[in-house]
Fold this protein.
Amino acid sequence: MRQGEAFITTRHENETAYIGAVLGGAIARPMVIALHGELGTGKTVLVRGAAAGLGVTEPVSSPTFVLFKIYRGRLPLYHFDFYRLREPEELEALGFDEFMPGEGVAFVEWAGHCPELLPRERLDIFIERFFDHAGEGRQLWFAPQGRECALAVEKLIESVTWRVNGKLNMIPLGPDPGEAGGRLDRNC
Ligand SMILES: Nc1ncnc2c1ncn2[C@@H]1O[C@H](COP(=O)(O)OP(=O)(O)O)[C@@H](O)[C@H]1O
Ligand SMILES: [Mg+2]
């Protein structure tokens, strides 16, 4: 593991959404977040949480069939899904470059389908499903490149705590005072 990287294990969809929400709350500036992991690992769940942390109040749905959605929050959230992407040219038509990073936070599911289109400075998040004696879980690996992304991961790690029984301590996350919206329960 390199400096600045982090691992977090979750045991339930709510925990992954919570981690997303804490990450969303830790993001202060535009950036690109590339999500990697097989179908059903929790990429969209993580983005839903992050949306709440970024103050998005609209429900977030998977953009698999439309490639891309924009949500209004404390910073704009751009949600891409490259699962069905056939040609990188499809993205040119969308003006994809403008969003890398653009004025908001771009989450890219199946980012590995088009690695050449991503900026070098980004946060890669790899999600893996695992099974053990306690059942099913997800391993989330955060690998930041560049100062802003490293700061966001640092803040995330500082904000997450565990109970003595090893369970994630999910402290209720309200909207920042003075900020509009941003509640986890509306998006998850
Ligand atoms: N720890 C966990 N974190 C996230 N999702 C989980 C977890 N455990 C089970 N799940 C389930 O896995 C699925 C993840 O779905 P989704 O976020 O749409 O995946 P992806 O976008 O990676 O294809 C959901 O059905 C969710 O309930
Ligand atoms: Mg998805």
